[in-house]
Amino acid sequence: xxxLTQPPxxxxxxxxxxxxxxxxxxxxxxxxxxxQQRPGQSPVLVIHQYNKRPSGIPERFSGANSGNxxxxxxxxTQAMDEADYYCQAWDxxxxxxxxxxxxxVL
Amino acid sequence: xxxxxxxxxxxxxxxxxxxxxxxxxxxxFTRYHIHxxxxxxxxxxxxxxxxxxxxxxxxxxxxxxxxxxMTRDTSTSTVYMELSSLKSEDTAVYYCARVEFQALHIWGxxxxxxxxx
Lengths: 106, 117
What we know:
The complex is a heterodimer of chains A (106) and B (117).
Chain A: E1 9-12, E2 18-23, E3 33-37, E4 44-47, E5 61-66, E6 69-74, E7 83-91, E8 94-97, E9 101-105
Parallel strand pairs in A: 1-9
Antiparallel strand pairs in A: 2-6, 3-4, 3-7, 5-6, 7-8, 7-9
Chain B: E1 3-6, E2 10-12, E3 18-25, E4 34-39, E5 45-51, E6 58-60, E7 68-73, E8 78-83, E9 92-100, E10 103-107, E11 111-115
Parallel strand pairs in B: 2-11
Antiparallel strand pairs in B: 1-3, 3-8, 4-5, 4-9, 5-6, 7-8, 9-10, 9-11
């Protein structure tokens, strides 16, 4: 079965750029989406179709996807961005999630 | 506004079944597929399956084949997820989510299902 691999944790200082990676076989040939989940809340879509932001998502969130790696970049990271982040792709007709990355804003 | 509202928390005994509902509002119910995703305590997101509200067609993750059933009621714009033969490992928050452009754009608030003897 298809697998997506994320680092368990990433740390960033406020105002700096955070990058979270997601690796999977030929992932660049698929649409990769990213979700933010704060404790006790439902996931929120932040990036879809490579680099599109839903309404209400700040411009500091961006995405890239090439080769075997998709990357979520948060520019000018704020304290409110501290959360778990999940990548997601489709394998045939199945949805696959990465294991999640805990972003800590120190 | 577009929203998905799920049923309340459930406590079940091992071996029992649970049926979680997800009521859609603010859009044409039959236009968008609905997915079910679960999250065990302290764990990541796990995809369970998909239902097409238009024709009731379903697709389930292999892990849940034979144990999960997804249905819909177009008269009330509600989809249901029933999981049978519950085990303690099924204790989780269960989410429904609406798909658009191959991403899960709108999520329900989640339903906590606890399986305990």
